[in-house]
Write a structure and sequence with these properties.
The complex is a heterodimer.
Chain A lengths: L1 E8 L2 E4 L4 E3 L2 E4 L1 H9 L4 E9 L5 E3 L2 E5 L2 E3 L20 E7 L1 E6 L18 E2 L3 H5 L6 E9 L5 H21 L8 E6 L15 E10 L22 E3 L1 H5 L14 H5 L2 H9 L5 E10 L5 H16 L4 E5 L6 H14 L3 E6 L20 E3 L7 E3 L4 E3 L15 E3 L16 E5 L1
Parallel strand pairs in A: 1-9, 2-4, 6-21, 10-12, 14-16, 14-17, 17-18, 18-19
Antiparallel strand pairs in A: 1-13, 3-4, 5-12, 6-11, 7-10, 8-9, 15-16, 20-22
Helix pairs in contact in A: 7-8
Chain B lengths: L4 E8 L16 E4 L5 H8 L3 E9 L1 H6 L1 H12 L6 E4 L6 H18 L3 E5 L4 H6 L4 E4 L7 H16 L7 H4 L7 E5 L4 H14 L28 E6 L3 E3 L15 E4 L11 E3 L7 H5 L7 H9 L5 E8 L7 H17 L4 E5 L2
Parallel strand pairs in B: 1-3, 1-4, 4-5, 5-6, 8-12, 8-13
Antiparallel strand pairs in B: 2-3, 9-11, 10-12
Classes of the chains: A alpha/beta, B alpha/beta.
């Protein structure tokens, strides 16, 4: 499959009379976009706000971040199964608006956070120490704030939120489809039967992408893989281009990952970068984390077998979905791979507890670990002039625009399970 | 870094040339200049510094009256106005290692003098002092003196100059348990790809997380007569009374709670909920028996399958809880269960 990303470097985003791109500025017809999103009956209304790098602005209750991308005409559907008709992606060309991100704000109640952070949710600070941690602070963010319609169930709303974000991403990127791109990136990987041609002596490395964890069950109708909620997904192989190009949408509960990260998947990008030079990119295996037996054992066995007997991998890299239970699957899968002669490396969050780490396993085959930094160390954030989202007062009495301490786990983009961040926890 | 650095070196009776085991009960004495291994240190310090004095003390003397011995050693070094203290290296000698650790810790803590020592990884002094004092890694015998001395002097000079001390693997010391988050120029993904390539080629690599050491607990014998046994329920799924009045932690727990369920046949969602950030708690909020199966246990009690269901249910939130706190919580719960004559416990986890 050969995918070309036609990238436009956007330097500013403003509201305008027409959604168009002129001189590296993206103009958004606010009302047109709102009307498009408000067609969804699960929503009562949708607000759109803009946040720019360097502003004293805090975006609250971030549910997901999506890069504006749209397939060029004839190249396929956008987010097939989720938005578009069923089909596959990963070929042809996709227009990308780099420097812009769609940030989805969630107006519903959060359950997965400690009480103290509950109403504020995940945040993005557009300036200050919080901004230094998050790559999203460097983007011009188009913040979409959908409100639930009366009678919409919580799940309906959560899915509608996600769809609104995807729709916005596509709508914006469509404005760039006819334009000359500023740069291009090509991702070209032949089928597995041909991928080693000419590079037979390079080590074959495969990537095991644990895309979601059943500790937070996907909702009925929640689009994750080509629109399916993959609750029962057994390990399978997928072309890396599909991962980049809209086949996978981050799950609603997927902490430590955003759709944006998946669209710019750091492990896949690096394997592509080194393909043909230091390694042969042997393929991508998708898994779902299970915490009951026999489901977990089945997943571990199938995934490691795909790596060994189908992809012929010499080495594998494993990443996990959020939550503690996935530590078990990934470490067991790593051990199983090692038992079969495949070298395994895991990417995990760093620990904070000094000499003893916070991981819940100790398997000899799962010792090669790269860490992405400590998710729970507190960072002091200054007060801000503007907030986008539901203004809330924390139980401590501090208001969300005030000075606060926040851990990277709740700063969108500060840490991610896929290893894009440039932080590491070091033991001294 | 100022020239003329004044160092005081601490040695035991053997390395100090006083004698072997038979001299281990000798008290501390001080001599001008370097003695024995101090020569190697002096050679490395060169003109940057001078070992102005060596304090020699018997290992047994030190071990048998540590507080007094430390005082004496500190008093002996003070007139020399040392800028730094180097102790040992103790290699694998246990009493010597403890003495070195103690001397360094006291010099730092009581006199504010930077200190460093060296030990072999199995020396009991390592685990006891590595957090307080820089302990360089040495081999298990004096054959490794040159490398040990080199590492010790390197750290000593950096401490004096207030230079940043690099990572344990780089500088050759035992990790002290301080975690620092640092920026890197390569993303975790890039480092992972490099690490897997190194692993495939059989090249050395440095894992970025040290896996915990779990101890092995021998399971007790199975309960032979369940029908007369008292069984308790416990969970790390974060069961709390509605509203979480005790403000139990929803992650990184440091404590546990117990709830009286005497006469209660089933946990009601009006009374209980789940407070835990590691899983979707909505299902438990709807019916807490899904987390702590009180309803089923009551049935089994009534049917005589178990003798009695214990009146208390124990709960904490396990997610992101440190190993040390997990042990503390587990031991705490076990003590109470044992005091209440409980025979078996079912721990439901998430």
């Amino acid at each position: 499959m050969r995918l070309e990303l036609a990238i436009l470097d956007i330097q500013d985003v403003q509201f305008g009379e027409k959604t168009t791109i002129n001189d590296r500025v993206l103009y958004i017809h606010r009302q047109e976009l709102r009307e498009l999103l408000q067609q969804d009956k699960r929503l009562s209304k949708v607000d759109i706000e803009l946040a720019h790098p360097g502003e004293s602005c805090r975006i609250l209750q971030v549910a997901d971040v999506v890069e504006p991308r749209a397939k060029t005409k004839g190249s396929g559907e956008d987010f097939p199964g989720a938005l578009g008709k069923q089909g596959t992606v990963g070929e042809g060309s996709t227009c990308v608006l780099r420097g812009v991100a769609v940030v989805i704000n969630n107006q519903s109640e959060m359950h997965d956070m400690p009480e103290a952070e509950d109403p504020m949710g995940d945040i993005i600070d557009m300036s200050g120490p919080g901004a230094e941690l998050s790559p999203y602070a460097k983007n011009h963010n188009v913040v979409v704030l959908p409100y639930p319609a009366d009678g919409a169930s919580p799940d309906d709303y959560k899915i509608a939120l996600k769809i609104a974000g995807l729709k916005t991403a596509v709508y914006l990127a469509k404005a760039g489809r006819e334009l000359e791109p500023d740069e291009g990136e090509v991702y070209d990987l032949p089928p597995l039967t041909e991928v080693t041609q000419g590079i037979e002596d390079l080590p074959k490395v495969a990537y095991l992408f644990q895309v979601y964890c059943t500790s937070y069950p996907a909702m009925v109708g929640e689009p994750i893989l080509y629109g399916d909620n993959i609750r029962r997904l057994l390990p399978t192989i997928i072309h890396p281009n599909e991962v980049f190009d809209g086949a996978i949408v981050n799950t609603y509960q997927g902490r430590g990952t955003e759709t944006y990260v998946i669209q710019n998947h750091p492990v896949i990008k690096d394997l592509y970068r080194r393909h043909g030079k230091e390694l042969c990119f042997a393929g991508v295996i998708l898994t779902v984390s299970r915490y009951t037996e026999p489901e977990r054992e089945r997943s571990v066995a199938m995934a490691s077998n795909l790596a060994k007997s189908l992809l012929g991998a010499d080495g594998v890299i494993l990443t996990k979905a959020s939550s503690g239970a996935p530590d078990i699957d990934v470490s067991q899968t790593a051990q199983r791979c090692e038992d079969m002669g495949i070298k395994a490396v895991l990417i995990m969050f760093g620990s904070e507890s000094g000499i003893e780490s916070g991981t819940v396993f100790n398997l000899p085959g799962a010792k090669a670990i790269v860490n992405t930094g400590n998710p729970f160390r507190l960072v002091s954030l200054p007060a801000v002039e503007r907030i986008i989202g539901k203004p809330v007062i924390l139980p401590s009495g501090v208001s969300a625009d005030g000075e606060l301490k926040k851990a990277p786990n709740w700063i969108s983009g500060a840490l991610d399970q896929e290893g894009h961040s440039k932080m590491v926890s070091v033991l001294y | 870094m100022s020239p003329g650095l004044r160092a005081v070196h601490y040695l035991n009776q053997f390395f100090g040339g006083v004698g072997g085991e038979e001299k281990a009960s000798e008290g501390p004495q001080v001599k001008d200049g370097p003695i024995g291994p101090g020569g190697a240190l002096q050679g490395l310090l060169k003109e940057r510094g001078e070992i102005v004095a060596t304090i020699i003390c018997g290992d047994n003397y030190f071990a048998e009256r540590t507080e007094k011995a430390v005082e004496e050693v500190l008093q002996m070094m003070t007139p020399y106005r040392p800028d730094m203290v180097i102790a040992g290296p103790a290699f694998n000698a246990g009493r010597y290692g403890m003495a070195c650790g103690e001397v360094c810790k006291a010099a730092q803590g009581k006199l504010g003098i930077p200190a460093v020592t060296g030990m072999y990884e199995e020396n009991p002094g390592v685990d006891l002092y590595k957090r307080a004092v820089y302990i360089v890694k040495t081999s298990d015998s004096a054959r490794g003196m040159a490398e040990a001395a080199s590492r010790m002097v390197n750290i000593a000079l950096k401490l004096i100059a207030r230079e940043k001390i690099g990572r344990p693997a780089e500088e050759g010391y035992f990790p002290r348990g301080i975690i620092r988050d640092e920026r890197t120029d390569k993303s975790a993904a890039e480092r992972a790809v490099s690490m897997v390539l190194a692993k495939i080629k059989g090249e050395p690599f440095e894992p970025e997380i040290e896996l915990p050491k779990f101890d092995r607990v021998k399971p007790p014998a199975a309960i032979k007569d369940l029908a007369s046994a008292k069984i308790a329920l416990a969970t790390d799924g974060g069961l709390v009374p509605r509203g979480n009045p005790d403000k139990m932690e929803s992650y990184k727990s440091t404590r546990f709670a117990s709830y009286n369920i005497k006469g209660v046949d089933s946990l009601s969602s009006k009374d209980f909920e789940a407070n835990h950030i590691g899983y979707e708690t909505e299902f438990i909020d709807q019916d807490p028996n899904r987390l702590v199966p009180l309803d089923v246990m009551r049935d089994l009690e009534k049917e005589g399958v178990i003798g009695k269901l214990h009146d208390k249910v124990y709960a904490t939130a396990g997610v992101a809880t440190s190993l040390a706190n997990s042990k503390k919580i587990g031991q705490g719960i076990a003590e109470q269960l044992k005091a209440d004559g409980v025979d078996g416990v079912i721990l439901t986890s998430t």
